[in-house]
Amino acid sequence: MTGQFSYNYRLHSRADYLKFFNKSEVFRLSECLIFRIPNTLGHFRLGVTIKNRCSSVERNRIKRCLRESFRQQKDLLGSFDYNVVIPDKKKSHFPYQLKLRDCMYGEFIRKVAQLQSR
Questions:
Q1: What is the dihedral of CA 52, 61, 37, 103, to 10 degrees?
Q2: How far is CA 37 from its chain centroid?
Q3: Average pLDDT, the chain
Q4: CATH architecture of the region 7-117
Q5: What pLDDT, on a 0 to 100 scale, did the predictor assign at position 5?
């Protein structure tokens, strides 16, 4: 996975997303919720759920921001499926992507590191 976020690193089917309703860990961050369940693939996979109504441009910006932050942190993420949920309370216009990126590189990494150190 060099330079792009390949097909194997993404969640695709409805069944993949339904698995999060059973026994997922939840990271409650300032800008989003992240659900995590273990998988047997040897690498992480990412799914994005955006609850608010926004333009396709804003939706794709959010997804690109999340994919890039996950791609850069892949060594810390382990063999888990992640579903990042953007709540409808969050406005998706431009400053949100910056806040989301900061949240992913700060809060999220700290929480994952705390779990690994246990």
A1: -90
A2: 12
A3: 88
A4: 2-Layer Sandwich (3.30)
A5: 79
